[in-house]
Amino acid sequence: MRVVSGIQPTGNLHLGNYLGAIRNWVKMQDEMECLYFLADLHAISMPHNPAELTANTREMAAALIACGLDINKSILFNQAQVPAHAELQWLLSGTARMGWLNRMTQFKDKSGKNREGASIALFTYPVLQAADVLLYQATHVPVGEDQKQHLELARDIAQKFNNDFGNGTDIFTLPDPIIPKATARIMSLRDGTAKMSKSDLSDMSRINLVDDADTILTKLKKAKTDAEPLPSEAAGLEGRAEATNLVGIYAAFAEESVDATLTRFGGQGFGAFKSALAELVIENFRPISERFNALKGDHEQIDAALAKGAAKARELGAPTLKATYNALGLLR
Ligand code: TYM
User: Which superfamily is assigned to 2-183+298-327 in CATH?
Assistant: First the structure.
């Protein structure tokens, strides 16, 4: 069993990343062999500033370590230091179909009305993502709901490659997504129908790991809600997207069921609930942001951690890359 997952080093790590993915990453490192990476190669699929990408890659590595990712248990690296990711992407490009990529909702969302002006990298992004996990024969991929479609594509590519070139053996393992039931999709604080995202123009829509206590309190106080009091059980949240989101965040941090949270707050307005929620988020993020602030300026330590992880990843990916070249009949 092997766990593989990645995060783009663009912008700040936010509460959606944390509850949707990173908290699971940290839990899984005690149970299985885990590889976690900064998807810096994915980050160049959108217009970007090179100096910012370097800084963000180091910051995201520091943020993951601050969240509890232990580099003595997990293998932490950035894609750019493991050329096999890009190589395998090309080798899989003969197998991935245009029609499959045309169905990817992320490409549609990110290219918007400017499809012709979108980069080729944005279109073939999911093939690189498939390479990321297939390279290591990942069995489990902990992600939020928004990455489900990309992982289904990775499975389709693996399956077709095995059929076409496997000669009776499986070159690639079909990976299973691990999506947390309760926190698969944390929504924007401004709009309960949009996911919390780094790319949302409004910083009020998300809580960042680096936000201080006052900012977290302000953002939650201003979070959109409706006029009804909180219901006493989960069924009463039906059709109330913003309330569902906030109660879900509370329950996730309190590590209890939504019903348990509502037993306490049912019948009350949002004022007291939002204060309690802010307190809980601040309490959970405080030790993380303290560790982050202590580490983020130490480039030497961060670079050493990434170099160590990359060396290990290069070693672990080598056999599958070789088998892929061989299967395709490429003479080396
Ligand atoms: P990224 O950087 O957008 O997000 C990192 C992880 O956070 C999860 N996530 C959320 N979960 C719940 N609610 C939200 N609002 C929310 N926003 C983000 C994402 O699902 C993800 O698990 N393409 C990927 C990075 C990637 C990758 C991979 C992931 C590249 N290669 C291989 C897994 C395997 C991405 O852009 O994630």
Answer: HUPs (3.40.50.620)
